[in-house]
Amino acid sequence: MTAVHRRPPSAPAAGRRAAPPRAAGPVAARGWAARLATTAGLLVVTLTLLVAPATPASAHAVLQSSSPAASAVVPTAPAEVVLTFSEPVRKVTDRIRLIAPDGSRADRGEPRFDGSVVTIQVAQDAGQGTYLLSYRVISADSHPVSGAFTYSVGAPSEPPTDAGADSRADPVVETAVKVGKFVGYAGLLLLVGATLVLVALWPSRLSRQGPSRVAWIGMGLVVLATVAAIWLQVPYTAGGGLLDVTGEGLGSVLGSGFGTAYLVRLGLLAAAAFLLRPLLAGQAGRTDTIILVVLGAATLFTWPLAGHAAASPAPAVSVVVDAVHLGSMAVWLGGLVMLAGFLLRRADERELGAILPIWSRWAALAVAALLLAGTVQALIEVATVDGLLNTTYGQLVIAKIVLFTLVIGVAAVSRHLVRQRTAAQRPTRVRRLIVAELAITAVVLGVSATLVQTPPARTAVADEVGSTENFFRTTLTSSIYSLQVEMSPAQRGNNTLHMYAYTPDNRPQPVEEWRVTAALPSAGIEPIEFPLLPLTDNHATSEISLPAAGEWQFRFTVRTSDIDQATVTATVSIK
Fold this sequence. Notes:
Layout: H1 2-6, H2 26-51, E1 63-67, E2 73-74, E3 80-85, E4 89-91, E5 97-99, E6 107-114, E7 117-122, E8 129-139, E9 144-153, H3 171-200, H4 209-238, H5 247-254, H6 257-280, H7 286-300, H8 302-305, H9 315-346, H10 349-382, H11 385-390, H12 392-419, H13 427-451, H14 457-467, E10 472-477, E11 482-488, E12 493-502, E13 513-520, E14 525-530, E15 533-536, E16 539-546, E17 550-559, E18 565-574
Parallel strand pairs: 2-9
Antiparallel strand pairs: 1-3, 3-7, 4-8, 5-8, 6-7, 8-9, 10-11, 11-12, 12-16, 13-14, 13-17, 15-16, 17-18
Helix pairs in contact: 2-13, 3-4, 3-9, 3-13, 4-5, 4-6, 6-7, 9-10, 9-13, 10-12, 12-13
């Protein structure tokens, strides 16, 4: 039975009636126009997901505590400053800086990293006043974490400024990382789909040239995305633009777990390339095929080993289910591409009658594995209902579930046609259904590429709940800038205020002068002006004290040049 399905008859039965001609003229033209418009719309949605800006405060590890604590006033200068994060972190060269009240560097030597604890030695002659500590480290899932705080020795003073501090990567770099992820996923499904169909389902009478070309294109896209990811990881973690890559930074990336996983992927792909050529030509033996399957499975594991799964609460489980999820996606979507692009166009009715039932069973198994692995992933990374509903990661998961449900609905129609044994007689309709599946799953890939660059819900919830019980965040807009405002814990007493300025097209907006006032008219409290500490040219912070609960009215005045200035307002509920 297997041999019959793998090598269907090469010619149609005698006396078979020719297929009716395809529709032509205005009706066909309108059909093509509709499909083109649908595909273009979905492509726009996908690109929008890819270029959607990350929030400036996003982080995959959380600073749980520090010694001295933020805003603390200590009687004598400490010999060291200790930072404790929620997961192990790695060093970014010269991105942990302690600035003394006079503006000089107060840290000495290299910071010591011990898992989730970072220790910074302080100069023995450190004087009194306010110190600024800025940090940028790499979390266990290869994403950067940055922040800053002040503490004072003896008594507070005018906070110093760190000219070398940065709070986030270049938005262009962040977008390029997401696009690279998308290209890598697309290449993987093309490679896996073409190889699988050529080995198990391709009719012997048909030329293998087209599918072979698709497989090599897929291989090239995966290699390109992998090399680009290694390059982009340098400015992504250290800060800077696309070309801000140094030998030291590249060496640091290649020496990390992220770099190791990507280098292993390149090695496995190189080894697989030698076996892929004869296999695509139909000349590979059974042993070569088995070796290629093993190499392919090992390659799949390099994706989760360099991402969220490696830093999850259950890394062994997360890595396995992530690899299963990725492999199932590649089999299912890659097979759909081959069906829509080649088999439904070239195979005759008898060949499709043999091929489609087998493919339908494979697709059902792949979708079942995809659903199971995705559910386990979501349970681990989301963890709570609050994380699902109130975090960016959880909302992306919901969007992915909705899109996946749509795809399953379309696939169910295709499977019904196969079970009714009418699919082989109606290849055009099946092909249209498959094109619809692929169009929706293109958006799913865009969501996935954004998802792997988004802080997991468990981390985001831990950040907000662990550090503050109440948290205020909003984005205020004017004609010349947008201002992201964050305040915690938004309660009576001491609060930390952060402000990030952006241009209307969402690029960091350099600020010449910041000014913030707050008033509580219901309690007769007139506007209070708070001192601000610029951390970068578009990021300022302040430690503010609010004496009473109520609806506080904040005014933020930002001057971006000698003549450009605008004021925005916000009402903050203080408990």
